[in-house]
Amino acid sequence: MKKNKKHLYLNKNVFTATLACFLLAPGFTSAADDSATASANVIAPIQITKTADLAFGDFAPGLGGTVTVATNGARTATGVILSTGGTTPTAARFDVVGQSNATYSITYSGDTQLTNTTGGGGETMLLTRISDLTGTGTIAGEVSSGTLGVTGTQSIYLGGSLVVASTQASGSYQGTITVTVEYN
What we know:
The chain is built from 1 helix and 13 strands. The protein is mainly beta. The protein has one domain (about 45-184): Immunoglobulin-like, CATH 2.60.40. Strands 1, 3, 4, 6, 8, 9, 11 and 12 form an 8-stranded antiparallel β-sheet that branches. It has a 3-stranded antiparallel β-sheet with strand order 10-7-13, with no helix packed on it. The protein has a two-stranded antiparallel ribbon with strand order 2-5.
């Protein structure tokens, strides 16, 4: 019986030695690796520049009503008497520059009324903003996004409509409108 036990013990050692040789054989490993390339593309920062202010021109309150400057600078009125002299009406224009063919969002902030800065009474006129990206004469709504062209440029045209009371005090009315653009 002792001979069997020894023989069994010898087989165990051979098996263990064979297994150890197999695990440590050249070209066999329990780990693997590979590599990936890391890359980044920095695009041109988006910029906006005002090139024209929104001007409603000169007018008298008449019976009261509205005076509107479309995005192409054309001025119309209801109940208000328009003057042909004085300040020329114009739509505001903002030029946007950035990465070609990139999309961006547009937000508007600032005054929703113009305030009399010379009459002393702080009178106001309600302002409704209108805008487009073509300058062809939109008279309602605001655009909220745009796409820069292949040259990385686009313009935003801003007009508006003022509510004028029949008793509107004379003076110079002013306000500020801020246009913010951001890549999508």
